[in-house]
Specification:
The chain is an alpha/beta fold. It is built from twelve helices and 18 strands. The protein is globular and about 65 Å long.
């Protein structure tokens, strides 16, 4: 997507030097900073401390982290260290494990002299595949938006609610939940997006809203608890979120608060869709609530907020009393029964094992 007049991916290799660069998302929307990642620990820090975030982007970043490690030391020990170090950064997003296992399987078959070249080629391929996957997700989601738009009066917008940031900043480009929005906007379909703030890190307020401004898509930022009220009054036509891990039975694990949106949507007859690349499906897991590990992040993310003061300076501000600890589960699980459909690169699947296998029959014996 474009930032100003330049097209950016969220992660890329410099055309001249081959260095890996990222958009450092910690400072958005107030500052746009790009940084170079070199050593393995740079990549681990970027993932753990959320310089990059979003399941697909985490996977691509990990792949590049392995490649940079192979350029420094292509030994089996270094490959194992890269896998372990990066895998320990974020436990919930399945794309991280998927990318690392993919890289390890490829590189373990290569002689050490060829590992760096093969690793960078595969990391580039993972990034390119992610872009195309998300473009296709957008085209399939576009048809859902188009069908709703056909029921509207001429010029009346389709109102879409989204939670967290499943935008191009969470992937290499296009995004998952936002890709249908970008395609609909480009097709001239009037849309309006309700952007959940997404406490405690405010990815909706800081990232999704920033993306909407950049794309020129009409939107409003709302507090996390406003969604149900809007649905009760007919002001939401559909919900589209992303997911960090989807079970083989169609449960979806996404940013904390997604489950509550799904409950409100179900109670009000609002379609609830989840957009995801197939790499986010964990075919080994069937009960999301019981089996998916939920990352518990620092309580400081709850007790402090980041923003720009009236003097123009960005800073962290404490909002709670001294001595009050913050509890911070980062994700929750929405059961498949609350999901209308799963928007994948191959089409829209019913949220069930049978529904997923209709689109991915090659996984019939998985798990």
């Amino acid at each position: 997507m474009k930032v100003g007049d330049r097209h950016y991916r969220s992660i890329w290799r410099d055309a001249q030097t081959g260095a890996v660069e990222i958009i450092d998302q910690r400072w958005l929307p107030h500052e746009f900073n790009c940084v170079q990642l070199d050593a393995l620990q740079d990549f681990a820090t970027a993932i753990r401390d959320m310089w990059v975030r979003g399941a697909p982007l985490i996977g691509a970043t990990a792949a590049y982290g392995v490649a940079c490690q192979m350029a420094r030391d292509p030994s089996d020990a270094a490959l194992g260290d890269a896998f372990d170090t990066l895998h320990a950064t974020r436990p919930t997003a399945i794309n991280l494990r998927w990318a690392l296992e993919d890289m390890r399987a490829l590189l373990s078959r290569q002689p050490e002299s060829k590992r760096a070249e093969a690793a960078f080629a595969r990391a580039d391929q993972i990034a390119d595949e992610d872009v195309e996957t998300n473009r296709l997700i957008g085209l399939h989601g576009l048809e859902i938006v188009r069908e709703i738009a056909a029921t509207k009066a001429p010029g009346e917008a389709v109102n879409i609610l989204t939670h967290c940031n499943a935008g191009w900043l969470a992937t290499v480009d296009w995004g998952t939940a936002t890709s249908p929005m970008y395609h609909a906007h480009a097709a001239g379909i009037p849309i309006h997006v309700w952007v959940d703030e997404t406490r405690p890190r405010n990815q909706g307020a800081q990232l999704t809203a920033w993306e909407m401004v950049g794309a020129g898509i009409p939107h409003h930022l709302i507090v996390d608890n406003a969604g149900g009220h809007l649905m009760q009054h007919g002001l939401v036509d559909l919900v589209i979120t992303g997911t960090d891990r989807t079970t083989a039975s169609g449960d979806v694990c996404n940013k904390i608060g997604t489950y509550l949106k799904a409950l409100a949507a179900h109670d009000n007859g609002v379609p609830f869709y989840v957009a995801l690349p197939s790499s986010t499906i964990d075919w080994q897991v069937h009960d999301g609530v019981a089996e998916i590990p939920i990352e518990e992040r620092s309580g400081r993310e709850v007790t402090h907020v980041f923003g720009r003061g009236e003097d123009g300076r960005t800073q962290f501000v404490q909002i709670s009393p001294d001595g009050t600890p913050g509890g911070n589960p980062a994700f929750d699980v929405t059961p498949a029964r609350l999901v209308t459909g799963l928007i994948t690169e191959r089409g829209v699947a019913r949220p069930s094992r049978d529904g997923l296998l209709e689109l991915f029959p090659e996984r019939r014996n998985a798990g």
